[in-house]
Design goal:
4-stranded mixed β-sheet; two-stranded antiparallel sheet; elongated; binds S-adenosylmethionine; 10 strands; 8 helices; alpha/beta
C-alpha cells in the first residue's frame, strides 16, 4: 500500500490503514469477537489486519462490514492529471476567490497570463490569443495578479520576481501550487516572498465555467504586499 501510495478515506483517523481500521472498530464499540462474527473472519485474522498484516481478500471482507463506504483516497499530486492535459493550463480563478483578492489587495492593474474567458478583472490583460506574451512584454502597474500556466510554474515565478525587483510592479500576488523544492525557490524567492498556505482548495473554472476539483494544495505568494493587505487577506481566506 505504501509503495502504491494507496490510502483509504471514509474509515477514520490514523497514519496507516491498520490504525484506521482499529480506530474505526473501537469507535463502533465492537469487540474483535463481534466483528469476527459479522465478517466470518477469525479473531486472529482481524487482529493481524489491525497490525498491518492480512490478505487483500480478508481486508475486503472486513471493510464490507466495518466501513462499506471506504474508498481509495485520490493520490496527492502537484499537477493536473494526464486526463486534464488538453486544457490543464487554462484553469481560471473563480470570481468568489477574486473578490477576496480585490478586497484585500485592491484593484488589479495587470494580469500577465490572462485568458479571454477568465473572470479575473484587470485594467490590462496580456492575452496569448492576441499574440501577446507575458514572459516577454514588460509588466507595469501597482498590483499584478498571477495565476500562471502550471506547466511552466517556475518560469512564471522567476518572471514575477524579476519584474517586481525591476520595479515594474509594486505588488505581485501569485496563486500557485505548493511546490517549494527547487534551489531557486529556497535560496532566492523565499527571501523576498511572503507565503500564505491556503486551507482547503480553490475550485478553478474550466472553459465552460465549470468548477474543477484541484488535486493539490495551493499557496498565495506575494511580493511587496503591505502588512495590512496580508492581514486583510488572512481575515477573508482560511490558511496560515
Ligand atoms: C491558469 S490560466 C489563468 C488565467 C487567469 N490568469 C486566471 O487566473 O483566471 C493561465 C493562462 O495563461 C495564459 N498564458 C499562457 N502562456 C502565456 C504567455 N506566454 N503570455 C501570456 N499568457 C499566457 C493562457 O491563456 C492560460 O489560460
Amino acid at each position: 500500500m505504501a509503495a502504491f501510495d494507496f490510502r483509504l478515506t471514509g474509515l477514520g483517523p490514523g497514519g496507516t490503514t491498520a490504525e484506521q481500521i482499529r480506530r474505526r472498530r473501537l469507535k463502533q464499540g465492537w469487540a474483535l469477537e463481534r466483528l469476527a462474527e459479522r465478517t466470518g473472519l477469525s479473531r486472529t485474522t482481524i487482529a493481524g489486519i489491525e497490525r498491518g498484516g492480512g490478505s487483500v481478500a480478508s481486508l475486503l471482507s472486513l471493510l464490507a462490514v466495518l466501513a462499506p463506504k471506504a474508498r481509495r483516497r485520490a493520490p496527492e499530486r502537484a499537477f493536473w492529471g494526464e486526463g486534464d492535459k488538453q486544457d490543464r493550463d487554462s484553469r481560471f480563478t473563480p470570481a468568489e476567490f477574486m473578490a477576496n483578492i480585490y478586497e484585500a489587495f485592491g484593484a488589479i492593474d495587470l494580469d500577465p497570463c490572462a485568458h479571454e474567458l477568465s473572470p479575473v478583472i484587470a485594467r490590462r490583460r496580456i492575452l496569448p490569443s492576441e499574440g501577446a506574451d507575458g514572459l516577454a512584454e514588460p509588466w507595469a502597474g501597482s498590483l499584478v495578479y498571477v495565476n500562471p500556466p502550471y506547466s511552466r510554474l517556475l518560469v512564471w515565478l522567476r518572471r514575477a520576481h524579476d519584474q517586481w525587483r525591476a520595479g515594474n510592479a509594486e505588488t505581485v500576488v501569485c496563486l500557485v501550487p505548493v511546490r517549494t523544492d527547487s534551489a531557486w525557490f529556497q535560496e532566492v524567492l523565499r527571501a523576498d516572498a511572503d507565503i500564505y498556505f491556503l486551507r482547503g482548495r480553490v475550485r478553478f473554472l474550466d472553459a465552460k465555467s465549470k468548477g474543477q476539483h484541484t488535486p493539490f494544495s495551493l499557496m498565495l505568494l506575494t511580493l511587496g504586499a503591505k502588512p495590512e493587505q496580508k492581514a486583510r487577506f488572512a481575515q477573508l481566506v482560511p490558511g496560515y
